[in-house]
Amino acid sequence: MENSMTMRTELQDSFFHAMFSGVTCPYLVLEVRRDWLVRDTICQLQLKSPADLRKQLKVRFVGEDGIDEGGVQKEFFQLLVREIFDEKYGMFYNNTDSNMCWFSPEPESDALYMQEMRLVGMVLGLAVYNSVILNIHFPHALYKKLLGVPVYLNDLLQLDPSLYSSLIKILHTFSPEEIESCDQTFEVSYKQNGQHQTYQLIPNGSTYKLSFDNKIEFVNSYVDFIFNSSCESQFEVFRDGFLDIVGSSFAMNLSPLELELIICGSSDLDFDTLDKYAVYDGGYKRDTPVVEYFWNIVKNFSIELKKQLLFFTTGSDRVPIGGLAKMKFVIVKNGTDSLRLPTSHTCFNALLLPEYESESKLKERLITAINNSEGFGMM
Fold it and tell me: Where are the domains of the chain?
């Protein structure tokens, strides 16, 4: 996309300007401790100038050797996103029906919380600037809001299909008598830190009963609560953090779908293309029997299994802009036939595959590995 090319040009300009103007480092360098990942990242980003934030990111984990050639950076984003979106932080909740994340309603908005929320926005911005696909599950409504595009009832379907269905029934299915029998007021409940709370959709909403005549007002107010009033303060700092990195002029030239694709990639899993551009190491070649077995198996996987394999190997079930041709997918020989399962190095998109003696054994081992990939086999 043209906007992506513009971003690439800005990165190159920043690099060469730094090289020839006496600046000691043309990169945004972060040195973080694994046990203090969120805090260290917040503290260091706060000290950086806007110009520094728009340099190519290099990450070093304190006490560990190695130059960041992309693998460390990718691991940094994976670990940071996993920690930030953990529900123990209370910043986001996960809808179990849709597996989508959204801002927790009316949290304890102290200064530290707001710093962390701003960091989440900056992480999205840094991912855009460094072409890193993030394994996050926001609904399309998030990208609309980032670009100032209004959200409506239909946007709720992706986030909360059950609530969407209930509101649709109120609007289009229920008779006046059925709505009356709901005994619903303009007060709604939600959970905050495991505790049930209530919110007045309008002033004195607890005394204002839902009826056939005011059902449109009720539905519109409920949707506005979910997407706007319940998360207004935290979304503002989140958006500020994102725009600190990418800049409003760049963001506003994108559509919400384009922005989502840049951050999260696409879901177009063309495994023929993945096969064509795959790389082999450790002695494997494309015509090695176990490699032939592998492609025969995975090209016949269901969409869900293909997504699981991609997540197992790369840390994300999404595809970067430009498709799987842009992903350096590596199959590495990991010993001879054994009882071991395949493993992976997600930082390098590498699948470590023992040289199994039969296609059936490979299929059984591979499916076992990817079905148990959360916290197992991924490094």
Answer: 1-150+231-264, 153-218, 271-372
Please determine, for residue 4, whether its predicted confidence score (pLDDT) is greater than 70. Answer: no
The residue type at 214: N
Check if the beta carbon of residue 206 is closer than 8 Å to that of residue 187.
Answer: yes
Active site residue 347: yes
Which value, in Å, is the radius of gyration of the alpha carbons in the chain? 24
Strands (E), 20-159: 27-32, 56-61, 92-95, 100-103
- Return d(Cα 73, Cα 88) in angstroms, integer: 24
pTM (predicted TM-score): 0.80
| CATH tag, 153-218 | 3.30.2160.10
Choose the catalytic residue: 101, 231, 264, 347: 347
Question: pLDDT exceeding 70 applies to what percent of the chain?
Answer: 89
**pLDDT tens digit sequence for 339-351:** 899 999 988 899 9
Give the CATH architecture of domain 271-372.
2-Layer Sandwich (3.30)
